[in-house]
């Protein structure tokens, strides 16, 4: 029997749980001797810590959404784990024991879940902060139809938001509270769905990154062999511009990628926390063999150049791009 430990943002019933099952279930279906132990974490930060501490072999985090963009908390955790400079005052940086090894795209369908059937009485809604701006239209409509403001309460995950409805003692209060979460979360916690598919956009999709321990080759299942992968690879890397006051630094960096025919998919910046208004860059590049030479050349321009992972592009990416291109 091969046992693989997978951490995700819990409790069961979150979208992260869905992503973890989507990534690992195919292996159990193919081979009965593989068993997956899913390990729900209380926070996204916990998903990073548990893999570094060797409490799991793989760990997933939400990274970006097709309608409301980056999951900034995940980016900031990548900065905290991978950017040595951001620890220079404490001197406490330690090389992470993990890297990004795969991606998973998950269709996200949100539901309004509540014990109360009269939606005009809802006063408070619980959910994960990433959810609000994916359901703007529904939330605005709901507020217009009720004669009061609706308070949005941030919870560490969508499934926990539904769980919390069960902890409200007073029946009257319960009927005035709701959660936004998946249909699985509604089933698990036994709270009915009052409206389904309340997301603003069709095709609302979250991209999750799968992290693996650097020593995972000792394991006998390898998620990279998943058949739903294309033959194209991506590389996620991070750096800080060395001389912030130097005119054209970013342009010089982009020039290096261009000269090596490296195609960029995204550039994102987050506060570096080294000093105010200094930024950490996250770049995703379509991998090619020229990357190593390009990275060596980039050293002149940047600090803390670190590859967070190289991984095969999911075939779903091309399905989605193709579908959008045909519209
Ligand atoms: O709270 C969850 O269910 C998560 O997995 C985080 C999240 C929230 C909204 C969209 C995708 C992931």
From TrEMBL:
According to its UniProt entry, one GO biological process term is:
L-phenylalanine biosynthetic process
The protein's annotated pathway: Amino-acid biosynthesis; L-phenylalanine biosynthesis; phenylpyruvate from prephenate: step 1/1
PROSITE patterns from the entry? ACT (PS51671), PREPHENATE_DEHYDR_3 (PS51171)
User: Under which EC number(s) is this enzyme classified?
Assistant: 4.2.1.51
User: Which GO terms fall under molecular function for this chain's record?
Assistant: prephenate dehydratase activity
Spell out the InterPro entries in the cross-references: ACT-like_dom_sf, ACT_dom, Chor_mutase/pphenate_deHydtase, Preph_deHydtase
Its protein name is: prephenate dehydratase
Natural source organism: Brettanomyces naardenensis (Yeast)
